[in-house]
Specification:
alpha/beta; 15 strands; globular; binds 4-O-methyl-beta-D-glucopyranuronic acid
């Protein structure tokens, strides 16, 4: 029903916008107002239903375009009186549609699309090729300096009229400029004297989907896969286009469709046709499709006896496969590969190196300008080793050995997307390799789509971390954006949190993490606060009071979650398998380094993983000043204390309190924060639409229950070692340790 209204509404808008100019004239000449009246009535009805039926279910993400106040729209309307978007390509049509829906929605009445600049307030969008007006401005040199995806937005005078020009070298750049312009109005910025130039700092800005071909999503918490493989290629879900719009609006330009734990079927001709159909929908929005390639595909699909990367037949098979793919999808991005990790096949199976494997695939896609994104998430099943050091040991020696079209995709931390990890030591350790950070947007270790956690602060902390690889100021951001080592290719990936849930991400606030990923991929210098407040203005409310409260809540949220899950450098205390609730006692996984007890090493003396010279010594993988800081118990930042050190329960921290007391207070603080947040949210009732208000309130109550379980289960368990009482300000546990051990929170 909702879809139907949505579709009708879109149709009606299209009819109005396409015909508007003509209709105005017709009405004047022939007094034929019946169709116009009909369309207007239809639109009024649909707008009404639109706003009450579908408006706040979260589907529209941050592209809501609901009317601004009368005063604001009056000001904007002086600058936005008509839209001049010439050109018939799919991208120019997408720009026209977005600008028209966006401006008309925000300003509360249809803004005409016209062919020429015939009044003040024209908004002109395009490239020097698509628009003679833009060509006439002679901005070519400046546009060239902004690269193919960069854009300029400027107030200008054209034929004596005051106009706004949004221009780029490429149509996709003009699309990015269009979204930026809309965002200015969505966030109520001035558009009076515009002079904006932007270009993305990273080249490949990719969402990785861990989607399986059966429609399930590994670590997905928002429904099923958006790709309906059985209906493709014939049936194209309209949602694909909205997915592409959302991504383009934040500058994401790549999408890896399938799980890194890959099924080789995706590379069959049958599936490639389906992939090509998706790529066709994404193309106008500048989104390239990538696929996760299973390294043993030549055996499974090609009937070869081996997948040895140095075997000429294997290389030939991949070359032919790449040719086939590019025949169907000329702008295919390339392959993403998880090799010799967690049971996946790879070159090590044949005693070849990761570089051998990556370079063989790279040769297959190189003639088509494709890339290979090779994941560094590798670790071995060895006794008495430190998993945190495995990827460095395995890959760092190959610095400089990867082909020019290979990027090495490295998770932000050395273990696995924990609520907090120090930066991965490979950043700053491979100057001749194109490192591409991998974030996890989906909240595998952060309360799934039940907990409100804004991840920008986590990613900021990582990007700002100083590797000292070329002295002070060698931040991870500079390694990633190529400014430190001048590599040819740069990129960043985020494991998507999207699914078929109506609101895309399960939790309304989880949309902000998708948004934040794109914004940081475009500009890794943006502050968490700015990203949060932009997102709130576009998605939730313009009202200053709730906006301020929500921005603060979002910015604080990640630290609070660390407090109730894994404070002071603890990590991987998660219930085996699903990774949702706490299970610090867990010790039954087939591999030692999948067990929480391996990571916290609690005993009667203390708790924490000694990664200094007296222990695993993986601290030695960091550059000298970083290493020294982490290595010394007194200089190690407390947030990483138990990551690098096994610390006595009675050790005094900066606060003067013992480790035990401090740990307990962190857990309590996490719970207190969720309670306070619930209260603050309750105070917003009536200021936020009821649908989203209620849904978020429900999730916050789950979050509070979960935080209590985390606090109690962890403290009760660690207390069996510390044998110390809880500090007076920490609440008594709600249940016994045995009760917490008996059932995971997911099953309660
Ligand atoms: O975080 C772990 C997850 C796995 C995942 C793996 C990886 C896709 O628990 O589900 O597999 O990381 O990143 O490859």
């Amino acid at each position: 029903m909702r879809e139907r209204f949505f579709e009708l509404q879109r149709k009606a808008r299209r009819i109005l916008f396409c015909r508007r100019e003509r209709m105005e004239q017709m009405r004047l000449r022939r007094h034929n107002c019946k169709p116009a009246l009909f369309v207007k009535l239809l639109i009024a009805v649909l707008f009404f239903f639109g706003s009450t039926v579908r408006a706040e279910d979260g589907y529209r993400l941050w592209l809501r375009y609901d009317p601004l106040t009368q005063t604001e729209s009056q000001v904007y309307r002086q600058r936005v009186a008509s839209l001049v978007v010439t050109g018939d390509s799919a991208t120019m049509s997408a720009i026209r549609a977005e600008l028209s829906v966006g401006c008309s929605g925000l300003l509360g009445s249809a803004i005409p699309i016209v062919a020429r600049v015939d009044r003040d307030g024209a908004v002109i969008v395009g490239t020097p090729q698509s628009s003679t007006v833009i060509a006439g401005l002679k901005w070519d040199r400046q546009l060239a300096s902004l690269g193919p995806e960069g854009f300029r937005i400027a107030s200008a005078r054209v034929e004596g009229r005051a106009v706004i020009v949004i221009a780029s070298q490429s149509e996709v750049g003009a699309l990015y400029g269009t979204f930026h312009f809309l965002r200015l109005m969505q966030t109520q910025q001035s558009i009076s004297h515009l002079e904006v130039t932007q270009r993305p700092r990273l080249q490949l800005r990719v969402l990785d989907h861990w989607d399986n071909l059966d429609g399930t999503i590994e670590r997905g918490y928002a429904g099923r896969s958006l790709w309906n493989w059985s209906a493709l290629p014939e049936v194209l879900d309209p949602r694909l286009r909205d997915y592409a719009r959302a991504n383009a609006s934040i500058g994401i330009n790549g999408s890896t469709l399938n799980n890194v734990n890959a099924n080789s079927q995706i590379l069959t001709t049958e599936y490639l046709r389906k992939v090509a159909a998706i790529a066709g929908v994404f193309r106008p929005y500048g989104i390239h499709v990538y696929l996760s390639a299973r390294f043993s595909a030549p055996i499974e699909l090609g009937g070869l006896k081996t997948a040895d990367p140095l075997d000429p037949e294997v290389a030939e098979w991949w070359k032919k496969k790449a040719d086939e793919i590019y025949g169907l999808i000329p702008d295919f991005g390339g392959f993403l590969v998880k090799a010799n990790s967690e049971g996946q096949p790879g070159p090590r199976t044949y005693n070849r190196s990761h570089a051998d494997g990556a370079n063989m695939l790279a040769a297959a896609v190189a003639p088509h300008q494709g890339v290979v994104i090779w994941r560094a998430f590798v670790y071995d099943n060895k006794p008495d080793y430190d998993r945190a050091g495995a990827a460095y040991a395995e890959l760092q020696p190959f610095d400089g050995k990867f082909a020019p079209n290979v990027l090495l995709q490295v998770k932000n931390g050395p273990i696995d997307f924990q609520p907090r990890e120090p930066f991965h030591p490979l950043f700053g350790a491979m100057p001749k390799t194109q490192l591409m950070p991998e974030f996890q947007i989906t909240q595998e270790y952060l309360g799934f789509s039940n907990h409100l956690v804004f991840l920008a602060p986590m990613w900021r902390e990582f990007l700002d971390a100083d590797t000292y690889s070329k002295g002070r100021g060698s931040t991870v951001a500079k390694v990633a954006d190529g400014s430190l080592y001048h590599q040819r290719l740069t990129g960043i990936a985020g494991v998507a949190n999207t699914g078929t849930d109506r609101n895309w991400t399960g939790h309304h606030f989880a949309q902000a993490n998708w948004y934040a990923f794109g914004r940081l991929a475009w500009n890794p210098d943006l502050s968490s606060r700015q990203i949060a407040s932009e997102w709130i203005a576009m998605t939730i409310t313009h009202d200053p009071e709730p906006s301020d409260a929500l921005t603060r809540i979002m910015v604080e949220s990640r630290e609070a979650v660390i407090d109730y899950m894994t404070p002071l450098g603890l990590h991987h205390l998660f219930w085996g398998g699903h990774h949702y609730g706490p299970a610090p006692w867990w010790n039954s996984e087939p591999r030692a380094d999948w067990n929480p007890v391996y990571f916290h090493k609690a005993d009667a003396l203390g708790v924490g993983f000694d990664r200094t010279a007296t222990g695993g010594n993986t601290v030695a993988q960091y550059h000298a000043p970083v290493r020294a800081r982490f290595e010394n118990l007194n200089s190690c930042p407390e947030e990483f204390l138990l990551w690098f050190h096994h610390v006595r329960w009675d050790h005094r921290l900066k606060s003067g309190r013992t480790l035990w007391d401090e740990l307990a207070l962190h857990y309590q603080h996490g719970v207190d924060w969720v309670r306070a947040t619930r209260k603050e949210w309750a105070a917003l009732k009536g200021l936020i639409d009821s649908e989203r208000y209620e849904e978020v309130a429900r999730k916050l109550s789950i979050q509070e229950q979960d935080a209590i379980v985390w606090r109690d289960a962890c403290l009760l368990y660690f207390q069996t070692f510390s044998q110390r009482p809880l500090p007076p300000s920490v609440e008594k546990p709600a249940k016994s340790l045995d009760e917490y051990k008996a059932k995971s929170i997911l099953n309660q």
